[in-house]
Amino acid sequence: MAMISLHVLLGLLLLLHVAPPSSSDDTLAAGQVLTVGDKLVSANGRFALGFFNWFQVQPPSNIDISKSNSTTFLVSNWYLGIWFNKIPVFTTVWVANRDIDPKPNLTQLKISSDGNLVIIHQGGVLWSALAVNKNRTQTCSINTTSAILMDSANLILTSLSGQVLWESFDYPTDVVLPGAKFGWNKLTRLNRRAISRKSTVDPGLGSYSIELETNGKGIVLKRRKPSVVYRIYAPESSEILKLLPRIQKILQLDPRTNGLIVPNYTNNPEEEYYIYTSPDESSSSFLSLDISSQIKLNIWSQANQSWQAVFADPVDVCTPAATCGPFTVCDANALSPCDCMESFSKKSPWHWEFGDRTHGCIRNTPLYCTSGKNTTTSTDMFHPIAKVTLPYNSQSVNLATTRSKCEESCLSSCSCTAYSYSNSNCSVWHGKLLGVCLSDGLEISSEDVLYLRLAAKDMPSLGKDKRKPNVGVVTAASISCFGLLMLLMLLVIWRKKLRWSSSPFYGSQGPSGIIAFTYTDLARATKNFSEKIGTGGFGSVYKGMLNDSTTIAVKRLDGTRQGEKQFRAEVSSIGLIQHINLVN
Q1: What is the mean pLDDT of residues 359-373?
Q2: Which of 146-160 are b and which e, b meaning 16 or more Cβ less than 10 Å from the residue's Cβ?
Q3: Where in the cell is it found (predicted)?
Q4: Is the distance from CB of 369 to CB of 417 less than 8 angstroms?
Q5: In the prediction, which pLDDT does 504 show?
Q6: Is the pLDDT higher at 392 or at 396?
Q7: Which of 58, 116, 136, 480 is deepest in the core (most CB within 10 A)?
Q8: Which range is least confidently modeled, 35-49, 188-202, 276-290, 362-376?
Q9: What is the DSSP letter of 43?
Q10: Residue 494: strand, helix, or coil
Q11: DSSP per-residue letters across 195-224
Q12: What's the CATH number of domain 1-171, 2.40.128.590, 3.10.450.40, 2.90.10.10, 1.10.3470.10?
C-alpha cells in the first residue's frame, strides 16, 4: 500500500492501469492459462481481454476518511475485463469480477475440469461464468469447451459443436456495445441489467441500475440503495414519449452520428430487447450508465483523441435520485452541481474527486438535542432552504396544525433532522436527507421550503453583531442608501434605452455555451412573430432575422407548465449538438 498526495494522483489518472503485452490469439482452449501479462485479442484487433491493474482510492481501516483529505491511499487490484485495444484512452467495456472483492495478488483464467470458464485465485475459484447461468442443463468436460473473444467484444464459452453455453453480452456491466441486446428473454427469464460503476477509478457495483421491465412497463432507471425509481421510459407500443424516438431524433440531427448509429427495437414471443448497430466499422461507440446516473452515448473522436458524449438523458443532472448523496443540495445550473448543505462538509473529499458521492456530507457541529435546556448557544435551530424538492421517506405529523407546532414536533425527537410545513401539512425527516434539489433546473419545479436542523452555533444569522446601533448612524446610512438606490435606478433606465437604440438584441453567452435572447429581442427579430413557418412539439415556429442578417427560426412555447419542462429539456438537448443549421 502506498501513500501519495492527491495532486500527484490526479496527474497520474491516465496511467491507472497496467496494459498487458500484445497477442494475436482470440481463443482460450483447454489446458491454456491466461495470467497477468497475457491477453486475448479479437480477430479484428479492436478488443482485448485480460487482467488489468486498477489503482483504487481506499483509506486504510485506521484512518478517518472525513479528516484525511490531504493524502490519498492507493490499493492495486486486479480485474478481468475487456477493453478497446486500439484506443489510447484505456476504456473497459466489460468486467468479470466487479461484484467480488478484487485481489491484489496474481490470478489466472482457464477452462476448468468440468468445461467452465473460471478465475482462479490462490487455488480457489474466484469467479465462474456458468455459475450465473441458471438454465444450463448439460455438463461438459475440459476438452469440449473453449472461450473466444469475438470481433464485437462478446466473450463466449462454446462447445465443440458450436453451441454457446455462456456469453458476456448477457451480463453487461455499465456498458452496452453495438450488436449487444438490452432486454430480456421471455423463455429463460434472463434480463440484461446494467449497473453503474462506483467511480472513475472503481469498476465495482455503483448506485444506479437500468433494465427493461418484464411486466411491459418500459425501461426503468433507479437508485439501488435506497431503491428509488427516477425515470421510466414508456413501452414502444404506447403513444407517450418513448426512449427510441428520442434517441433517433438526436442521432439524426448530429452529423457525428447520422447514419453511423442505427437503433432498433424487437418484441416477439421469445424476446423483447433494444439493440443498435454501427454500419461504419471504423467508428467506436458505446452506451453507458454513467456514474452521474445518466444514460450517455459516447463516440470516439479521432481528431480530439477523446470520447465525446453526443447524447445524455436525463438532461437535468439533478433528476436522478439522490445523485449527490446525503445532506447535499443539487443545482443543475452550477458548474459542480453537488454541494453540501449549510454547515455540512464533505465526508470523504477524495471519493468526491473521482465522482463517488455516496458518502455525502456530515455535520460540522453535532446537534445539541437535549430537552430541558433552551439557550441561544446550546439548543438546535432551523435553517430554511427555499424552493427545493423535499427529501425521500418523509413522515406526516397530523397533530401539528401550524408551522410552530411542526417545528416543535421535530425538536422533540433527537433523530429528526428536518421538517416542512405546507398547505396545513407537516412533514418531518429522521436520519439522512436524500434527494434535495434546487427547483430552477430543466426538469425540476418546486415551491417547497425545507427547514434544516442545525446546532445553534452554526446558524448563519447568529454570527452577526447584535449590539444596538446608533440612531444617527442609521439615519445617515439610510439617506445615503436611498440616494445611491435612486442613482442606480437612473443608470439602469439609461442603459436600457441605450441598448434598445444601438446594441445587438441578443444577449451574452451563458455557462452552457448557449447565447440567451430576451422575449423582446425575439419579438423584434420575428417582427412580432408575424411569419409562421411551422408547428412543432409544444410550440409554433416563426421566421426571423438577427441584426447581422442571419436568418433564424424561433420556436415559441404555446403549452402549459408541463409543456414548458419538456420544451426546456428539448432546447437543452439541441444545445448539445453542433450543426451547420443550428445557431448557438
Answers
A1: 79
A2: bbbbbebbbbbbbee
A3: Membrane
A4: no
A5: 42
A6: 396
A7: 116
A8: 362-376
A9: T
A10: helix
A11: EEEEETTEEEEEEEEEEE-TTSS-EEEEET
A12: 2.90.10.10
Superfamily per CATH, domain 509-575: Phosphorylase Kinase; domain 1 (3.30.200.20)
Torsion over CA: 361, 366, 370, 374 (sign): negative
> CA-to-CA distance for 211 and 194, rounded, in angstroms?
7
pLDDT digits (tens, 9 = 90+) for 185-197: 999 999 999 999 9
How is the chain split into domains, by residue range?
1-171, 172-313, 328-463, 509-575
473 φ/ψ angles, rounded to the nearest 5 degrees = -65, -40
* Least confident span in 5-9, 151-155, 423-427: 5-9
Residue 293 one-letter amino acid: S
Distance CA 565, CA 446 (A): 12
What percentage of the chain reaches a pLDDT higher than 90? Answer: 42
User: What's the grid cell of residue 435?
Assistant: 434527494
Whole-angstrom distance, CA of residue 386 vs CA of residue 448: 6
CA distance 272 to 501: 61
Q: How far apart are CA 324 and CA 330, in angstroms?
A: 7
DSSP-derived letter for residue 331 is -
Query: Could you tell me which residues come within 8 angstroms of residue 234 by beta carbon, excluding any fewer than 6 positions away?
Result: 218, 240, 241, 242
Looking only at the bridges linking them, the beta strands covering 164-167 and 92-95 are unpaired
- For residue 533, list its beta bridge partners: none
Band of pLDDT at residue 462, cut at 50, 70 and 90:
low
**Is the CB of residue 92 less than 8 Å from the CB of residue 52?**
yes
Say how far apart CA 219 and CA 517 lie, in whole Å.
36
Nearest residue to 199 (alpha-carbon basis) of 229, 231, 174, 225: 174
- SS3 of residue 553 by DSSP: strand
Q: How far apart are the first and last CA of the chain?
A: 50
Binding residue numbers for ATP: 555
Question: Is 561 a residue whose pLDDT tops 70?
Answer: no
Residue 452 one-letter amino acid: L
Retrieve residue 114's grid coordinates: 468440468
Indicate the pLDDT class of residue 331, thresholds 50, 70 and 90: very high
Joined together, the cell numbers standing for residue 195 give 449497473
Question: Taking the model in full, what pTM does it have?
Answer: 0.70
| Confidence (pLDDT) at 507 | 45
Could you read off the pLDDT of 275-300 as tens digits, one per residue?
A: 999 888 888 999 999 998 899 999 99
Cβ(231)–Cβ(246) below 8 Å: no
User: Rounded to an integer, what distance in angstroms lies between the CA atom of residue 408 and that of residue 457?
Assistant: 19
| Cell numbers describing residue 464 | 452577526
- Other Cβ atoms within 10 Å of 133 Cβ, number: 18
List binding-site positions. Answer: 555
Residue 142, CA distances (Å) to 109, 111, 155, 158 in order:
14, 6, 18, 12
DSSP class of residue 446 equals -
- DSSP, res 388: B
- Separation CA 344–CA 457 (nearest Å): 13
269-273, 397-401, 496-500, range with the lowest pLDDT = 496-500
- The two most distant CA atoms of the chain are separated, in Å, by 99
